[in-house]
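FIELD: query
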Amino acid sequence: MKDNILPEEKLLRLIRKEKKADREPERKASLAKMSSKAGVKFSVKPKEIILTAFIASSLYLIVSLIYPLLSIKKNILPEVKQEAVVEPKPETIEGPKPYDFYLSGIKEREIFSSSQIEVVTKPQSGINTDLLKDISLVGIIAGDTPQAIIEDKKTQKTYYLNKGQFIEEMQVEDIQEGKIILNYRGEKFELYL
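FIELD: result
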C-alpha cells in the first residue's frame, strides 16, 4: 500500500515533517525564554509529580497515626470503695391478679359512662339543673387561649367557647385539662369530658 503513494504525496509529507522539525526548536526556545523570565523550569516530569504526592501522603499518614499516641494523657480514676457499693434488693414479682380485681377498678371509674356533672358547692334550691342536663363537654382545644367544645343536646348545636364566654346563662369560668368550670349565678359546676 505504501508503494502506491504518489510522488506528490511523498513530497508533501516530507515538507510537513521539515516544518514540524523547524518549529520544535522555536517552541522550546520560546518556553525557555518564558521560564527564564518567570524563574520557573518547565522540565517537571509526571514521575516526579507522582513521587512527590506519594511522599507527602505517606508523611501525612505517619503523622496522623503517631500524633494520637503522643498526646495521650493518663487519666487517674478514683478508687471505688467496697463500702460504697450498694447491692440492689431483689423485688418480689407477684403473679397475675384475678379478673375480679380488675373488674372492680373498671366499675369504680365508670370509663364508658357519658360526661359527668360534679357539683363543687352544694346546690341551692331553685337552680335550674335542666340546663346542665342539656349540655355536655365534647372536647377541649389546648393552646395559648384554650377553647371548650360544648354540645347543646336540646338545640343540637356545638359551641366553641373561650374563658369568660357564656352558654345560655352559664359562664365558662376556667378551662382545664379534661374539665371546665361553669359559673351559674354564683354557683360553680364542673363539667368533665
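FIELD: remark
The helical segments are 7-38, 46-70, 99-109, 130-133.
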